[in-house]
């Protein structure tokens, strides 16, 4: 058998082991090459598909790079004002308790302007899942300093490196929220390796399953990259993330009740 | 005949919401309207109709809860007072931009800033000209009695869903705090999920079923050409409101030589002023705009051949008077009389202002 | 002693050439092409097809979901 005919035999509908889920739309994503948002979107879509909850899932997108998340997942979406996604999700989940409601927020959206909304949604223990994508920078507006920007990290608004004496310290949001009685499941994940993506998908499934039981909020932080903002290639960004982000934002489950 | 009760205006807002099948109220305490949420918490509508009542962490969160609930095709509302409405302005323009129906109640107090907790009408511009950013309009209803506080809750929801646009009840601490006889509306059931899908299934985020495209509740369109087309659509909607939804009341206008234009509690004061003026032989009438947007422009213009002067009476430094002048367009003299900062004018003062401005006294 | 043989198909026009699949592949199957697609990206492709075991690692980490993975038992 020649190599070509062997390939033809393998590339056959019945041998498919991995393909795009139909919960993801065909629209090309606007994200930069290598952006973690794409992987997270896919992971969420695959879990929605696996759990067969497409008709019952409502997403709330933020302001920031993922404002257009509604162009990629084939579910009903609400697009929130900057930082306010947890408020929208609160009402949606209270008014339609049988639905699976999630917010998808970046670090500027959730950790800066939306601090009050996330804090109180967590404190009330709303039956929602929150995806918090922490890449330590404002992506959409062009790479400015975020509350999660690391000490010394160079951004457009900390061009000499973040000076914690004048700009405060990088905020560990998950640790803060895990202290609240209203949070049920708080975990910090990543998505840079196949193993990390599989683990992330498990966390997503757990989050959606928790919403059914009405016992508090599931908060899933995903440490990700922003190669455009960090001014590194996608592969180098992952290396930088492992070296610099993971020590300050350690991966793992902080709370699971 | 419905239930007849003696109730506070603010309490009636809450009761009317429960009775008209409202699905959710999201609020934050602020004087002079805190009784709205307090009444709801005492009434426990979640046990009676399933209505959800949430005390939010801020006015900002409350209006965004309204956005979330409205996106689901539910009848949702919030209430606040002036400084709180300023905080809600962002959420309100998002609601207008996403074409979502909702009810906002502003029990106005004196400003600017933290101002005072006493009644005022100084949020007229904020209500009818904008408040938030962008070219949008709210349907604005101005009750002048506790009865209208009851009636306008359901009317606001009807108009909000008819036009897919937020509606605002613009009232003040006088109407909100005073007790009057009120005939409460009959109870109406909340919409079922099937009814919501039948009514709003083309846009509401009720969960994407296989038989339709996904619904997206957003005010964003990065394509300027599309954004302009969308703005044309909004403007057409506002013109339709102007055409179809003007509401007003005329009192003693048939033989009037002079005209008061006043809304809400100022209109009540003007009614007494009319009695006093007519005893003095001054034939004055009142045109009371009930909708502040759309504004009764034609109805004011119809009086121009008849009256010699118009006095706009407001508890503000002169806001609505600008709309009166736009309608009148210089054809008869228009003056403003107002007290503000929480001071309520007396009927005698109003008559005196009419005499000073138009009767050379 | 590979028990499985695999192959991938890349939607080359949608690929943004980020190279994350290249790193993720445990058997070094994937490289970025010298050619570019319509958007100017050096798209991913199977440079060493015989080594593919159809493990889906590339598919899992691909941000643009442009990789379909096939796998069958070695004959």
TrEMBL record, chain A:
GO terms for biological process: cellular respiration; small molecule metabolic process. InterPro entries: 2-oxoacid:Fd_oxidoreductase, THDP-binding, TPP_enzyme_TPP-bd. Residues 70-222 form the Thiamine pyrophosphate enzyme TPP-binding domain. This is 2-oxoglutarate oxidoreductase. Pfam families: TPP_enzyme_C. It comes from Ancylomarina euxinus. Keywords: Oxidoreductase. GO terms for molecular function: oxidoreductase activity, acting on the aldehyde or oxo group of donors, iron-sulfur protein as acceptor; thiamine pyrophosphate binding. The keyword Ion transport does not apply.
TrEMBL record, chain B:
Transmembrane segments: none annotated. Residues 256-350 form the Pyruvate:ferredoxin oxidoreductase core domain. One of its GO terms (molecular function) is oxidoreductase activity. Keywords: Oxidoreductase. Residues 15-188 form the Pyruvate flavodoxin/ferredoxin oxidoreductase pyrimidine binding domain. It comes from the Bacteria. PANTHER family: SUBUNIT OF PYRUVATE:FLAVODOXIN OXIDOREDUCTASE, SUBUNIT OF PYRUVATE:FLAVODOXIN OXIDOREDUCTASE-RELATED. This is 3-methyl-2-oxobutanoate dehydrogenase subunit VorB. It comes from Ancylomarina euxinus.
TrEMBL record, chain C:
GO terms for molecular function: 4 iron, 4 sulfur cluster binding; metal ion binding. InterPro entries: 4Fe4S_Fe-S-bd (IPR017896), 4Fe4S_Fe_S_CS (IPR017900), Fe-S_Ferredoxin (IPR050572). Residues 6-35, 43-72 form the 4Fe-4S ferredoxin-type domain. Keywords: 4Fe-4S, Iron, Iron-sulfur, Metal-binding. This is 4Fe-4S dicluster domain-containing protein. Transmembrane segments: none annotated. It comes from the Bacteria. Gene3D superfamilies: 3.30.70.20. It holds the Pfam family Fer4_7.
């Amino acid at each position: 058998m020649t190599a070509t005919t062997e390939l033809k035999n393998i590339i056959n509908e019945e041998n498919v082991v991995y393909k795009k889920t139909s919960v993801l739309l065909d629209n090309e994503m606007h994200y930069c090459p290598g952006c973690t948002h794409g992987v997270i979107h896919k992971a969420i879509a695959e879990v929605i598909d696996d759990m067969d909850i497409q008709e019952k899932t409502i997403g709330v997108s933020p302001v920031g790079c993922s404002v257009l998340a509604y162009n990629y997942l084939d579910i009903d979406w609400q697009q929130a004002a900057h930082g306010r996604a947890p408020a929208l999700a609160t009402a949606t989940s209270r008014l339609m308790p049988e639905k699976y409601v999630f917010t998808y927020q970046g670090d500027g959206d959730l950790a800066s302007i939306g601090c009050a909304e996330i804090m109180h949604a967590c404190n009330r223990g709303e039956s929602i899942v929150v995806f918090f994508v922490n890449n330590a920078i404002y992506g959409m507006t062009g790479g400015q300093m975020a509350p999660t920007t690391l000490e010394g990290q160079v951004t457009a608004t900390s061009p000499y490196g973040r000076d914690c004496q004048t700009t405060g310290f990088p905020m560990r949001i998950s640790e803060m929220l895990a202290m609240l009685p209203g949070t049920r499941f708080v975990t910090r994940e990543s998505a840079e390796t196949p193993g990390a993506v599989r683990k992330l998908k498990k966390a997503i499934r757990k989050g959606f399953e928790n919403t059914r039981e009405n016992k508090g909020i599931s908060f899933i932080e995903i440490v990700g990259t922003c190669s455009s903002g960090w001014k590194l290639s996608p592969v180098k960004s992952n290396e930088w993330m492992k070296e610099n982000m993971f020590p300050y934002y350690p991966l793992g489950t902080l709370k699971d009740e | 005949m419905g239930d007849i009760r003696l109730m506070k205006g603010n309490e009636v807002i809450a009761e009317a919401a429960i009775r008209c099948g409202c699905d959710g109220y999201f609020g934050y305490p602020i004087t002079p309207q805190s009784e709205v949420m307090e009444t709801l918490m005492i009434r426990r509508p979640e046990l009676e109709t399933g209505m959800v009542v949430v005390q939010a962490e801020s006015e900002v969160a409350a209006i965004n809860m309204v956005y979330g609930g409205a996106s689901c095709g539910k009848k949702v509302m919030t209430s606040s007072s002036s400084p709180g409405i300023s905080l809600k302005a962002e959420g309100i323009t998002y609601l207008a931009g996403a074409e979502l129906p909702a009810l906002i109640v502003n029990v106005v107090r004196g400003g600017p800033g933290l101002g005072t907790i006493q009644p005022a009408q100084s949020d007229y511009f904020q209500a009818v000209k904008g408040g938030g950013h962008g070219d949008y309009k709210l349907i604005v209803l101005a009750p002048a009695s506790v009865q209208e506080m009851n009636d306008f809750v359901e009317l606001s929801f009807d108009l909000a869903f008819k036009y897919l646009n937020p509606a605002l009840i613009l009232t003040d601490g006088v109407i909100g705090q005073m007790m009057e006889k009120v005939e409460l509306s009959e109870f109406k059931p909340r919409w079922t999920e099937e009814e919501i899908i039948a009514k709003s299934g083309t846009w509401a985020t009720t969960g994407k079923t296989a038989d339709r495209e996904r619904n997206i509740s957003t005010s964003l369109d990065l394509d300027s050409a599309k954004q302009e087309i969308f703005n044309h659509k909004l403007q057409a909607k506002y013109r339709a409101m102007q055409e179809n939804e003007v509401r007003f009341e005329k009192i003693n206008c048939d033989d009037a030589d002079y005209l008061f234009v006043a809304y809400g509690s100022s209109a009540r004061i003007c009614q007494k002023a009319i009695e006093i003026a007519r005893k003095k032989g001054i034939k004055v009438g009142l045109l009371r705009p009930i909708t502040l947007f759309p504004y009764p422009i034609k109805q004011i213009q119809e009086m121009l051949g008849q009256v010699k002067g118009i006095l706009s009476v407001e508890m503000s430094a002169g806001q609505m008077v600008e709309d009166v002048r736009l309608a009148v367009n210089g054809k008869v003299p228009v003056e403003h009389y107002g007290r503000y900062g929480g001071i309520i004018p007396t009927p005698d003062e109003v008559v005196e202002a009419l005499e000073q401005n138009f009767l050379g006294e | 002693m590979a028990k499985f043989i695999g192959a991938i198909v890349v939607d080359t026009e949608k690929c943004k050439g980020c190279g994350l699949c290249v790193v993720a592949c445990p058997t070094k199957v994937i490289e970025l092409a010298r050619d570019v697609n319509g958007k100017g990206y050096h798209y991913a492709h199977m440079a060493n097809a015989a080594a593919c075991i159809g493990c889906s690692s590339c598919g899992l980490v691909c941000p643009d979901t442009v990789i379909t993975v096939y796998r069958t038992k070695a004959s």
